Amino acid sequence: MTAPHTVSAVDYHTAGEPFRIVAQGLPPVPGDTVAERCATAIGPGGSGTAPRRGPLDEVRRLLVQEPRGHAGMYGGFVVPPDDDGAHFGVLFWHKDGYSTACGHGTMALGAWAVDSGRVAAPDDGDVQVRVDVPSGRVAATVHRSGGRTTGVTFRNVPARVGARKVPVATTLGIAEVDIAHAGACYASVRARDLGLEVTRAALPELVRAGREIRAALATHPATWHPQGPLLSGVYGVVLHEELPDTPFGPHQRNVTVFADGQIDRSPCGSGTSARLALLAEDGRLGEGEDLLHESVTGTVFTGRLVGGGVTEVTGTAYRTGEHVFTADPYDALGAGFLL
Predict the structure, then answer these.
(1) CB 150 within 8 A of CB 267
(2) Which uninterrupted H or E stretch holds 211?
(3) What is the pTM of this model?
(4) Do residues 139 and 40 lie in contact, with contact meaning Cβ atoms separated by under 8 Å?
(5) 3-state SS, residue 253
(6) 194: DSSP letter
(7) Name one Pfam family in it (predicted).
(8) Which one, out of 4, 39, 74, 157, has a CA that is 20 to 30 A from the CA of 335?
(9) Which helix (H) or strand (E) holds 152?
C-alpha cells in the first residue's frame, strides 16, 4: 500500500450527510487547475466512479472504506485554487471515486474554513469563502451570530436544463426523466411514477431505480457537457415527491442516489440546484421565492434563484470530530473494504 502511515482529517456533517476534510499530508496531484487535478486523480482511462489506482486514490480508499469509513462516507482533499480569486480548491470524493460538484461539501468547507481560522470572520455577520471545484468557482457564505456559525449558503455554478420527459424503462415501470446540469448532471424523476414514496422503508427500491436510471442514460446526448467528459454523464438521480407548498414557494422531499448506488443523507446541495432550474423552467419558482427541500432523513435545505441560472442553497454544517487515521503496514486488510 502506498498511502501514508497516518492521515489527519476533520469531519463535518451537512444536514446529516458526512464530509471528511483532508488539508495536509497528501501526495502531489499534478495540474494547473482543480479540474486538471481531478482528471489526474481519476487517471488515464478511468472515470469518476472507476478511478485508476494511485497514491492519492489509496488515501481516498483508506478514508472511505471500512473500518475507517463506510459506504455512505463523503469527503474532500483540499488543494491549491486555480488563482488568487479563491481561498482554496477541493477534490470531492466518495466510495466509488470522485465528483465534480458537491453542495453539502462546499457548505461544510465554508464552516471549516471559518472555524479553523483559515478565513477570518466576524462574530456577527457574514463572510464569503470562495472555493475552486472541478466544475468551476463556487462560494459558501458563512452566517455568524454570537461568535458561532449558524448556517451556510452555497452559491453554485450556473445550472441549466438538458432535457425534459425522457422515457426510461426500469423494473418498476417507465419513468419520465428530466435532466439538468448543476456542476454535475442530475436526472430527476417523480417517485410516484414508479409506485414509490420517498421514505426510509422504500430505500432499497429507490436505490435500485436510481441505479437503473443512471445506467439507462449513460449515453444519452442530454447528459453531455460542452466542457467535456469530466462534467458529462449522469452523476445523481433525484427521486422526489411533492409536499404542500409553503407561503414562500414549493415544498418537496427527495432522495438522491449518486455514483454507484450511494444515498445522500442531506437534500443534496448541487441536486437542489438542478431541481431549482427545472422548477424555474416549469414556472413554479421565481426570483424571491424559495424551495423548501427535504431529505429522506427529514433534514432541510432552502433553495432560491439568484439570476442567470445561478442558484443558492442554505443549510447547516457542524463539526463531528477530528481524527488521525493509521495504516499499519502489517494490517492484512490494508486500506479496508466496502460492504
Answers:
(1) no
(2) helix 203-216
(3) 0.96
(4) no
(5) strand
(6) G
(7) Pro_racemase
(8) 39
(9) strand 148-155
All three cell numbers of 119:
478565513
Instruction: Kindly report, residue by residue over 54-98, the tens digit of the pLDDT.
Output: 999 999 999 999 999 999 999 999 999 999 999 999 999 999 999
- Residues assigned a catalytic role: 102
3-class secondary structure per residue, the chain: CCCCCEEEEEEEEECCEEEEEECCCCCCCCCCCHHHHHHHHHCCCCECCECCCCHHHHHHHHHHCECCCCCCCEEEEEECCCCCCCCEEEEEEECCCEECCCHHHHHHHHHHHHHCCCCCCCCCEEEEEEEEECCEEEEEEEEEECCEEEEEEEECCCCEEEEEEEEEEECCEEEEEEEEECCCEEEEEEHHHHCCCCCCCCHHHHHHHHHHHHHHCCCCHHHCCCCCHHHCCEEEEEEEEEEEEECCEEEEEEEEEECCCEECCCCCHHHHHHHHHHHHHCCCCCCCCEEEEECCCCCEEEEEEEECCEEEEEECEEEEEEEEEECCCCCCCCCCECC
The phi-psi region of residue 257 (left if phi > 0; otherwise alpha if psi is between -120 and 50; otherwise beta) is beta
Q: Which of 227, 249, 14 has its CA nearest to residue 111? A: 14
Burial class (CB in 10 A: 0-12, 13-18, 19+), 129: buried
Q: What integer pLDDT is reported at residue 3 of this predicted model?
A: 46
| Joined grid coordinates for residue 235 | 452523476
> Which tens digits make up the pLDDT trace of 197-224?
999 999 999 999 999 999 999 999 999 9
